[in-house]
Design goal:
The chain is an alpha/beta fold. It contains nine helices and seven strands; from the N terminus they run E-H-E-H-E-H-H-E-H-E-H-E-H-E-H-H.
Length: 236
């Protein structure tokens, strides 16, 4: 499964960790692939370190490229004078991981169509080439509907399955836009709402994080989340 966001800072890494935690709970071997890590220095912990902290050492992680500037992967690679991570390289790594793991998660950088190289390669190319469904991690509030609709439309145009939408950081006190979006996100994306991860979930201890994942992700992702019941609790 590929995880993409409607933008940066929407909670992709925490959602990736939550999906991985539930898969591991089902005694499945899990690998998380980060094709390109941007905005992090060579010795600093990146997104995969966060996944390992939240999930534990049983998850396999693999980062293909790291570029210090907080930019699109292709731009960051060019500025660093380093070779970019191409979609074909990411796809090959995913296939290799699938040979030894039951479940492979691929976490993108930014949104679905962010460029990974100067040829215009994107995360969508990775998903299409390996036939993987894409989970959209969306922001909760105002402005998320357009970005979510465009992401879902891009997937449909490429014949890529959308595994659903997860709100990556559900606020403790959601405003009117966020509450309405619980109903509107599935409509504009023509895809189910399959989770809502509470804000500050990354601050939880490992066992509490696993318990949160169970209640915040739908059965299709290994959890118990009920979208209709959750939305009813926030009826605007």
């Amino acid at each position: 499964m590929v995880l993409t966001g409607t933008g940066t800072g929407v909670g992709k890494t925490v959602v990736t960790a939550a999906v991985a935690a539930l898969a591991l709970e089902r005694t499945r071997s899990v690998a998380v692939l980060k094709p390109a890590q941007t905005g992090v220095g060579p010795d600093a912990p990146g997104d995969l370190a966060e996944v390992e902290r939240l999930v534990g050492a049983d998850v396999t992680t693999w980062e293909l490229g790291r570029f210090p500037d907080p930019l699109a992967p292709g731009t960051a690679a060019r500025r660093a004078g380093l070779p970019p991570v191409t979609p074909s390289a990411a796809a090959a790594a995913a296939v290799e991981l699938s040979r030894g793991h039951d479940h492979v998660l691929i976490e993108g950088a930014g949104g679905l169509l962010v460029r990974y190289d100067d040829n215009g390669g994107t995360l969508a190319d990775v998903a299409w080439s390996i036939g993987a469904p894409v989970l959209i991690v969306a922001d909760a509030g105002l402005g998320t509907l357009n970005a979510t609709a465009l992401t879902a439309e891009a997937l449909r145009q490429r014949g890529i399955e959308c595994a659903g939408i997860v709100v990556g950081s559900w606020p403790a006190e959601p405003d009117l836009a966020a509450r309405c979006n619980l109903d509107d996100l599935p409509l504009v994306a023509d895809a189910p709402l399959v989770g809502a991860v509470p804000e500050n979930a990354a601050a939880l201890e490992r066992q509490d994080f696993l318990a949160m994942a169970r209640t915040s992700l739908a059965p299709s992702l290994g959890g118990e989340f009920d979208a209709s019941g959750f939305a009813a609790g926030y009826a605007a």
